[in-house]
Amino acid sequence: MILGDSMFKTMNGEKDRLDFHHVFQSIVALNENEVYGYEALLRPKNFDNPELHFIDAKKNNYLFELDMTSIYKASLQYQQLPNKEKLFVNICPSTIISPKFPEIMNEIIDDTTISPENTILEISEAEKKEDLDLLIERVNDLKNWGFEIALDDIGRGESTLEAIIELDPDILKFDRFFAHGIVYFQKKREYMRRIVEIFGKDKLIVLEGMETREEMQTAIDIGITHGQGYYLGRPGIL
């Protein structure tokens, strides 16, 4: 496996840092009550939670390897999906702008049955956008390849509207913060309604973290079309 060999060479033999698997959580079209896709959620073997894994990757300079290995492994597991729903995979801005990114991404496409048209790359809105001009260029390249782009964690960053306008993603994903208490907190509903009114006509909008029927119904009333959370489906192995 060319990809695996190239990845592990950069790790100085410390393969255990890339020892993880994925669970998959459904993303549901709310009005149709149909599964639209699955997000691949990384579950590390040697860290208590994924956040600690990514902190260690940044500290020890293997975030690129972690990201790309995650996409590769998720793509292999995706092949098991019988109906080939959309696959959502997370990727950091620093990975996208890496000089190695185009070559490794092509390797993943060649080495798996992954289809860019069925794959959505999630970029966190809350993360610092290093070298924004290059990031925008790479995002446009990915779109030309056929990938869709999702902007994740909407509402957690300092400049949501700017990020949406600059990156022009196909999908917006509200952070789970907005699902919790959505029934009772008017300001959360107003904020989401504003985003839906501005961008909802040409972008798919997802609310993460739905845990009750009331949260789902309130989201539908606001204009949210897709949802993710325990109420709609818990993460699991394909």
- Ranges where pLDDT stays below 50 over 5 or more residues in a row are 8-13
Instruction: Write out the strand line-up for the largest beta sheet, numbering strands in chain order.
Output: 1-2-3-4-5-6-7-8
The fraction of residues assigned to DSSP E strands is 15-25%
Q: In angstroms, what separates the terminal alpha carbons?
A: 23 Å
Number of strands: 8
The geometry reads as globular
Number of helices: 9
Main β-sheet description: 8 strands, mixed, barrel
Give the helix/strand class. alpha/beta
Could you estimate the helical fraction of the residues in percent?
A: 25-40%
Helix-strand topology string: HEEHHEHHEHEHEHEHE
Quaternary arrangement of the chains shown?
A: single chain
**How would you state the average pLDDT, rounded?**
89
Give structural attributes.
alpha/beta; 9 helices
Topology:
Layout: H1 2-9, E1 20-29, E2 34-44, H2 50-59, H3 63-78, E3 86-90, H4 93-96, H5 101-111, E4 119-124, H6 132-145, E5 148-154, H7 160-167, E6 171-174, H8 186-199, E7 204-207, H9 213-222, E8 226-227
Parallel strand pairs: 2-3, 3-4, 4-5, 5-6, 6-7, 7-8
Antiparallel strand pairs: 1-2, 1-8
Helix pairs in contact: 1-3, 3-5
Descriptive report:
It is built from nine helices and eight strands. By secondary structure, it is an alpha/beta fold. It has an eight-stranded mixed beta barrel, surrounded by four helices. It is globular, with a radius of gyration of 18 Å. The model is unreliable at 8-13 (pLDDT under 50).
